[in-house]
Amino acid sequence: xxxxxxKIGVLTSGGxxxxxxxxxxxxxxxxxxxxxxxxxxxxxxxxxxxxDIFRMEGKSVANIIQRGGTILKTSxxxxxxxxxxxxxxxxxxxxxxxxxxxIIGGDGSFRGAQTFSNEYDIPxxxxxxxxxxxxxxxxxxxxxxxxxxxAVEAIDKIRDTADAHDRLFIIEVMGRDAGYIAxxxxxxxxxxxxxxxxxxxxxxxxxKQLAEKERRHKLVNLIVVAEGDNFGGANEVGKIIxxxxxxxxxxxxxxxxxxRGGSPSCFDRLIASRMGYSAVECLLEGRHNVxxxxxxxxxxxxxxxxxxxxxxxxxxxxMKIVKILAS
Length: 327
Ligand code: F6P
What we know:
Layout: E1 7-12, H1 20-33, E2 37-41, H2 45-49, E3 53-56, H3 83-96, E4 100-105, H4 107-119, E5 124-128, H5 144-165, E6 168-173, H6 180-188, E7 193-195, H7 203-215, E8 221-226, H8 234-244, E9 250-254, H9 266-285, E10 290-295, E11 298-303, H10 304-307, H11 316-326
Parallel strand pairs: 1-2, 1-4, 4-5, 5-10, 6-8, 6-9, 7-8
Antiparallel strand pairs: 2-3, 10-11
Helix pairs in contact: 1-9, 5-6
The structure holds 6-O-phosphono-beta-D-fructofuranose.
């Protein structure tokens, strides 16, 4: 018989993502609606280890749905990945009587939650909060839509100046291990090529394609590179192309952390609200140690131990679309 959840803690962990605040708001307000006590845990798992925990009310989350970042702050906590760190965290939760946790973060944060819930009798529910969209078991992650729209807006601006100077731009977007921001923004901005960590890049094919376009006097050439591609990012790719095609006027632009900030899109606010609401329902209904995703527009629950083993797969057809539409 599962114990009744009466007091829940909520935290945001790993890289921040626009929409995390909307998710926190949904967790807090749904919890209060069901008569639960809700506690905010500061700076991810650090707040559990260091006892930085405070009671939240409905008004604690007023006026945050539209804000980027996270009011609970975030971090990647090394201590929580040690047994001693997790013991401290458990003892601190006990002091408050917290008997359920909602963790908003990426796969690293889910790994922490899974280990913790195996060791201690505190049920955990995860919400996928990462701009990378690299978690299997959900069509979208909180923050991805906003990040991609930020990248698209920036790349459109780069296209203007690329066109004015007849330049080739190599644009780096975020994604150390995942190419979704690159793939989505690349298709949406009409990039010539998209380089992603999940695929080995055929640089010879890219050079051949660019040389052919040089002959045709194609005006704008944009290449979108995920920071974790197999050459090590846009600077490296830029060097190779400059060496091989000296006639090309090459510029590199690294978009960086602007992709993580800003007001969340309507879509991110919506999925964050649905997922936050659903996380509390899961804790109350005894659906424990899962993460809440959305698949085909319906809530979808994946056990944390499965979630940490799988990555979302790149759709081959999307890579083909880049090629065909750029020709
Ligand atoms: O996980 C989200 C992410 O933005 C990745 O795309 C990126 O590689 C990484 O975080 C950057 O992390 P940091 O902000 O610690 O440099």
